[in-house]
Amino acid sequence: MVSLRCKMMVKEVLKELDLHFIVVDLGEVEIMEDLIPEQREELKKALLISGLELMDDKKAILIERITNVITEMIHGSDELPIMNYSNHISEKLQYDYTYLSNLFSEVKGITIQQFIIIHKIERVKELIIYDELNITEIAWKLNYSSVAHLSNQFKKVTGFSPTHFKLLKQKRRNPIEEIGNSELQKEA
User: Does the pLDDT value for residue 188 go beyond 50?
Assistant: First the structure.
């Protein structure tokens, strides 16, 4: 689950199946009942109909949790953490960052750092489109060391300078759920 809409869909599925939940969070659900295999299969099918999937594989679950931490860090808060990203992710998930990084790269085919950059650039696009902050303020908000650093990274990922992007009629933003899944983005 990578959005509030996904959380609402999961809650609805659980209610329809008369399952009681303690927590429905991004990427995690804690159900009060112990599920029998038939209930588990019914839940799996109901989630698939909603476009979601039940994950049993511990590695897949951890990858989903990494993705959710990054998504929440960049898209879900007004301020990025002051500490570096590796420490933030490691602290949030209670795993060694090297282990998380190797696992993520193995499964996703890109590094955590590349995934973060792609998400940050999508956030930059969003802030440019909203037109409430100038490029300097956006660079500061997203913890770039300078406007030049933001501009270079933006151009490397999108092929446009932030200023040129702002002038485009079609604002080339990607849905959060699709960020990091495209072959083209792997080259970033």
Answer: no
Reported as a single tens digit per residue, the pLDDT across 126-162 is 999 888 899 999 999 998 999 999 999 999 999 999 9
Q: Locate 1 and state its tokens.
A: 């689950």
- 112-186 CATH pick, 2.30.40.10, 1.10.10.60, 3.30.300.70, 1.10.3380.30: 1.10.10.60
Other beta carbons within 10 angstroms of residue 170's beta carbon come to 5
Q: For residue 186, name the pLDDT band (cuts at 50, 70, 90).
A: very low
Give residue 55's Cα distance to chain centre.
Answer: 17
Rounded distance between C-alpha atoms, residue 105 and residue 102, angstroms: 5
Number of H helices, E strands in the chain: 10, 2
**What gap in Å lies between CA 173 and CA 188, rounded to an integer?**
15
- 129/165 Cα distance (integer angstroms): 9
**Residue 138, both tokens:** 């956006």
In the chain, domain spans: 1-54, 112-186
